[in-house]
Amino acid sequence: MIILVNVLFSVYYLLIIIRGFLPYIGFTRFKWLVEPVILLTDPVIKPLRMGIPPDKLNGVDFAPFVAIVLLWLLQRWIISLLGGL
User: pLDDT tens across 20-65, in order?
Assistant: First the structure.
């Protein structure tokens, strides 16, 4: 069960990393590929963007980084709960 949790979180981390790089690459040609990434990561990224707006000066969006850190903490917590079973 712990392996499944690790795999699921790893896939989601990858999706968030891809989402973080989308503004820096031209993704309009691959819209069919990008839409699922945005759809899957929006539930985590959108609430964070309300509290952490993108940096207007440099155009840096810290929400994906914060999301990965928070999800990592959640993953550690879930694994500690499963380890006690």
Answer: 988 888 776 778 888 999 999 999 999 998 988 777 667 788 999 9
Interhelix angle for 2-21 vs 63-83, to 10°? 180
Reference 5, options 43, 34, 13; nearest CA is 13
Residue with tokens 């712990």: 2
Instruction: State pTM to two decimals.
Output: 0.86
Burial degree of 34 (CB within 10 A; 0-12, 13-18, 19+): middle
| Among 19, 80, 22, 23, residue whose Cα is nearest residue 44 | 19
